[in-house]
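Quick one, T. Sequence first:
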Amino acid sequence: MGKVEDGKRSTDLDTQLAERLVSLADTLVEDYDVMELLNRLVFSCVELLGVSAAGLLLVDGDGKLKPLAFSDEDAKFLELFQLQNGEGPCMDVLRSGAAVTATDLTQTRTRWPLFAPAALAHGFHSVQAVPMRLRGTCIGGLNLFAADQPPMGEADQKVAQAMADMATIGILQQRSRDQAAVLAAQLQQALDSRIVIEQAKGVLAGRANVDPNEAFHALRDFARTTNQRLGAVAALLVQRQLDADAVLNRQTRPS
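Structure tokens:
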């Protein structure tokens, strides 16, 4: 029976993976939302690979790193921490263009004297970082953090890289001759959207006295169930064109 159940779980996972790749591939059209793409990437990794959290840093057209997507506040903190201190798995990925694996962060204090203690303090014990690259172009790094879960195996690492590659294609596929200008504009749009989303989280958190993670999930669920872009919903909320209670109560009302 165990083998049958294991086989069913494997089949289910393959189906979910195919669905997520198709979802990411939907961005390969003329009109798409970069921020929505990046959010799909980090949450798909958490949901499919069983990691505790995910976050990513991207390089803009001026060569500056920007933290643009994270599954929760812990991942957000660690992405910013790496950026501010110039140290950590994502920084190594961006320098080398190769994946970085740390199965036991207690053994990486020499390599990352600042990042390792910070990650451990947030409850994470291992991390996998994969590059967001297309051929010779590396535009960012995706970090996958594990708390009590075993370190990621080779198969899951390949899945993470495949999803990161698909997202990278989605970002870069609209290149023109002036590649840097196009990439800068796309990432600036994503950064502006992230700022509005953070403001919207604050509106919801203040209204319902919930933490930022709960506020984000309410915002994300409302956008999904109403078939709207996350950034657009956040903007309406910040501009007071959308009632915070409508977002917070969506899950308790009939669909």
